[in-house]
Amino acid sequence: QVQLVESGGGLVQPGGSLTLSCQASGSTLKDFAIGWVRQAPGKQREGLSCISATGDKIVVANSVKGRFTVSRDNAKNTVYLQIHSLEPEDTAVYYCAASEICEYEYDYWGQGTQVTVSS
Does residue 51 have a pLDDT over 90? Predict the structure, then answer.
């Protein structure tokens, strides 16, 4: 069982940057591909990015390419999502999720962290 915990969300002004973190309890993240997914109010979940267990494969959705960067530090058991040039449309709950590889459906999900972009 993998328990994921996201952190780093908050209120940010448009144009600002934010780094979200995903950590695991009860297990280690190094054996899992980790993805980031968001859900805005009234909208479906949107897959953003995924990084393989070793970090050698990264997938980024076209809608956020160039602004969102995923990385991982397996020594710290943490995966990061850096978000730049935030827009009000980025307001959502951001989740990290784990699977064996990025191509599979996610087996484990965190509770999410709220990101609000507003002036």
Answer: yes
